[in-house]
Design brief:
CATH superfamily of the largest domain: Oxidoreductase, molybdopterin-binding domain
Distance between the termini: 38 Å
CATH architecture of the largest domain: Alpha-Beta Complex
Protein name: Sulfane dehydrogenase subunit SoxC
GO molecular function: heme binding; molybdenum ion binding; molybdopterin cofactor binding; sulfite oxidase activity
Cofactor: Mo-molybdopterin
CATH topology of the largest domain: Sulfite Oxidase, Chain A, domain 2
Keywords: Metal-binding, Molybdenum, Oxidoreductase
Helix content: 10-25%
Shape: globular
Amino acid sequence: MTRTTRRGVLKVGLAVGAGLAGGRVIAQDADPAITNLQPWMQQLGEGVDARPYGHPSEYEAHVVRRNVEWLTADPVSSVNFTPLHELDGIITPNGLCFERHHSGIAEVDPAEHRVMINGLVETPLVFTMADLMRFPRVNRVHFLECAANSGMEWAGAQLNGCQFTHGMIHNVQYTGVPLRLLLEEAGVRTDGKWLLAEGADAAAMTRSIPMEKALDDCLVAFKMNGEALRPEQGYPVRLVVPGWEGNMWVKWLRRLEVGDQPWEHREETSKYTDLLDNGKARKFTWEMDAKSVITNPSPQAPITHGKGPLVITGIAWSGRGTIPRVDVTTDGGMTWNAARMSGPSFNKSMHRFYYEMDWDGSPLLLQSRAMDSTGYVQPTKDMLRKVRGENSIYHNNGIQTWSVNENGEAENVEIS
């Protein structure tokens, strides 16, 4: 029996050159990409000052956030999506982090911006940005996921691409002041059990947050991935609420009011609640459960190289801890194999996984299943529907399926 190894496949590839896909075989000495001098090899490039703020190669111009026009009535109160299928590792570049706005981007002058703490505190305070910079700061890597991420998929396969099914998420390093330090400065009274965070945008976004969470791991952040927040991400300062739904991460943060009960505002009553089959809705379901998705292959990232070595990759995350294990199936769940976890494993952060195989050209039904550090295992969509029905929008962490045909093309499907 002859066994073809990855090394053997690569040797053959070097001998005959590229172009195995589509049945073409090009001899190495006939490939102009290797035999001819290219223009960039024969002329000087731009100098160091030509691009004062660096940007990606022109050949990566397609790697952008994208909107779904029919999803909302107006782009001012809408969302665009992170191109997950174009990324690797766990850090989302600042220019690709998805956006969700309720009244458009607020362009805030940091010199005129203030953060106030009032309500049930000993000393109401107002901080300038310069004041905030004088507090001890920390750096933490966390994911931010909109509660409506994958929401269109409750009733079945809808959007064809992981950018659109799962792209309301990003994962960056935040730099900021622990919220606990600011609250301690103001002196929270013993009857102060809740915190109302308010944004400075025209929507006056507000959310109620339990004091236990506020004093635990929340940040008042002013930088992401080392640079100042982008305006669409809340410049000059936003709230970071690790592991909890993105609507609570109030952007353009201007006020923190301490109270003795939740405020029951619009974003926690008529919105961001989980509608059940019986017509009632669950509220205060803040934590984002363990979830994963295969980003490659996927509908926007088909297999183009033909048969042979194939790298399957994706991301997993949990609002309750880390992801020690992800399993991958290529046959729709009949058999599962442990994926290879690679890269740092931070609390309430994305995790990158890989599964390598030799593809024989047969159709695939690809799924990933995450397990978090609490032992929770990502459920199927049917398991979620048995509990919550099909009328929900938020908190869909069901297993996603991509059907890959013999040509390597992938499609969003659902299997029982």
